[in-house]
Amino acid sequence: MAVDQNLPIVTPSTISSSSASSPISLRKSRALIATNNSSAFIQFPNSPRRSSSFVPIHRPQASPLSTPVSSIRTNTQSISNAPSSSTVSDEHKRNHSQHGSNPILNNPLLNHRKEKPKPFRQNFSTDLSYTTKLNPSGKQLSNNNQPENINKQQQMSYFDKTKYDYITRCKSSSPSKRVTLNERLKADSIVIRKCINRETYTIPEHCKDCPGENGGGVTLTADESKDLDAVMKKEFFNLRASDKISLWRSIPDTRHELCKIVKYPDDLPSASVVIVFKNERWSPVLRTVYSVLNRSPKKFLKEVILVDDQSDIEEMGKKLDDYCEEHFGELVRVLRAPNRLGLIKAKSYGAKHATGDVVVFLDAHCEANTGWLEPILARIKEKRSVVLCPSIDSISDHNMAYGNSGLGSVGGFWWSLHFQWISIPKRIRDTQKSKIDPYPSPTMAGGLLAANREYFFEIGGYDEDMEVWGGENLELSFRTWMCGGSLEFVPCSRVGHIYRPGHPYNMTGAKGKGDVHGRNSMRLAEVWMDDYKRLYHVHRGDLKGKDYGDVEDRRAIRTRLNCHSFKWYLENVFPEKFIPDENVLAYGEVKNPNSHLCLDTLGKDEKRTIPLSVYSCQSGGSANQYLSLTKDNQLRREDGCAVTSDSVSIVLTNCNHSDHNQTWTHVNNGTLVHHPSNRCLDVEGLSSNDQIKLKKCEPNKLSQQWLFRHYSK
């Protein structure tokens, strides 16, 4: 609440003569009037050792300047019969005791927002920007509605006294030290940090009819779209659309209807939310913060920690510090990394400074949805050793539209140790009692997760010798499962995330040079994958012999925690994962000896249907030429199986054991026959990069003879 600048300054001469003979000692200072919409209060100056006193008075609905101060009536008594300063102070304390002892909540000078009229004994807002107003994009608008009849000296005296009252009440120390005009900026810092916390923070009003409200997409004008390609190339998302949207915009509640009726315990653990940023932009970072603050129960959210990993964008420096201090107080901390840490180490840095029972990691371009925090905390309360991920909704990188991702997927991995999304296996769905029950996932994407803070460090936190980004998500996933914990997704916790095609910062590291993912994944393969690291090296043969650093401390964690083998993980956690060289008839490169051409994916993206082609054989050195013939008679890669739709061309598409069109038979150094077409793979007339064809089977035709590199015994 701010002092109402439309009310006149109250001096001894403006109070009725009867009041002058009252026991109230006006001394030489002015009395102040503060208002809360229809309610008003007179503040009588405090003594050096006593808090300021307030007398509630009735404020008529007419313009305050049209009502003489002398005609204002008190709620219970006239000012002329007002008690002494000490008596009023005692009464004020009794009022406080009925609704909490926090002097900030009950100080009528601390609410700057124009809210609906509230009784005096209700809590007030504590955003202390009493000389400024804030628009939804975070910019300050000057407040120039001060009464014209107050001269400069009176103004400064007026605000000095108001500021002094803030300090004495917020610091809660006695005796209080008067803050001079020259110390104003320092006083602001002290006051706001002390006054705004998780108990007193209030949610800003939504910007009605503003762009992007209710999660809608933003359409740019022709002028706004000029040079947009350059912006997209630099930021990897539509920054201009983001900047048009309110920092606290509304988004649709994407939870399942059953989630909305769940009742959670009142004694859930507290949470610290850690958000790391490196050259991220103002609007997505602050929108992430506001979404967390506005949609998290105050009693459970202990703090938000912003970790700046050496950003060099000016607006993310002091401007961000000042904004967070002014509008979030002690609820949001900005930590500046002493040197470039990279995302992995910066997360650890933030977690080590966290004080909540649960540490939650979010990317700096998210929007937490309604009820996102409670189901996470409730599950961690039930099981301390669980690492949780919210269900991730999609925010468009082109127009910032918020989209529902449905009931979700689970995390998997490629043998190259990249993350992938896969459908929830039937065995998991069959074990769920309800669609909204948390469900296990073999791996996680890594940007958004939560864990008991102590447990997180007990099992080794992050591998801090990994650089920048990449591989840490799979390392933590494998370690959690293998060392006695579990990894789960929570359907009732939903967080929107901008999926960007790139990163607006340098992704190289000093040790891994340009390939930080390669070095990081080598470390996790050496520590956690046992003999299965052979399959990683099939895909990353270029890394053989490269330095991956000292991993003895990470191996010591595995020994200390008596962790399971990676084979146990594959059999018990991820039995759906295809192992290319186990329980198969043949595997490796598939070669036509006559032409020296091998089946090849040509490095195409296998997350979608791609043609199966041929290329010069690489003597087993190319992962693109690694295929398997399974005991189920499928010719396949990790996830894609060979199939035809026209009995001529062959493509790789998602494997389906019930699809008989994916059946193949083969004899050693013989033909590869597709069923039910009964046609054979043939390289006749083909050269490197051509798509492989099916032709009528002909006995002893050399172009139809195929040889796998390995045959199972």
From TrEMBL:
Its EC number is 2.4.1.-. It is a single-pass type II membrane protein. Pathway: Protein modification; protein glycosylation. Residues 11-24 have a biased composition (Low complexity). Residues 587-709 form the Ricin B lectin domain. Residues 1-24, 44-150 are annotated as: Disordered. It holds the Pfam family Glycos_transf_2. The keyword Transmembrane helix applies. One of its GO terms (molecular function) is polypeptide N-acetylgalactosaminyltransferase activity. GO terms for biological process: protein O-linked glycosylation. It is found in: Golgi apparatus membrane. Residues 44-54, 63-88, 98-109, 122-150 have a biased composition (Polar residues). InterPro entries: GalNAc-T, Glyco_trans_2-like, Nucleotide-diphossugar_trans, Ricin_B-like_lectins, Ricin_B_lectin. CDD domains: beta-trefoil_Ricin_Pgant1-like, pp-GalNAc-T. It is an enzyme of class 2 (transferase). SMART domains: RICIN. Its cofactor is Mn(2+). It comes from the Eukaryota. GO terms for cellular component: Golgi membrane. Keywords: Disulfide bond, Glycosyltransferase, Golgi apparatus, Lectin, Manganese, Membrane, Metal-binding, Signal-anchor, Transferase, Transmembrane, Transmembrane helix. Belongs to the glycosyltransferase 2 family. GalNAc-T subfamily. This is Polypeptide N-acetylgalactosaminyltransferase. It comes from Adineta steineri.
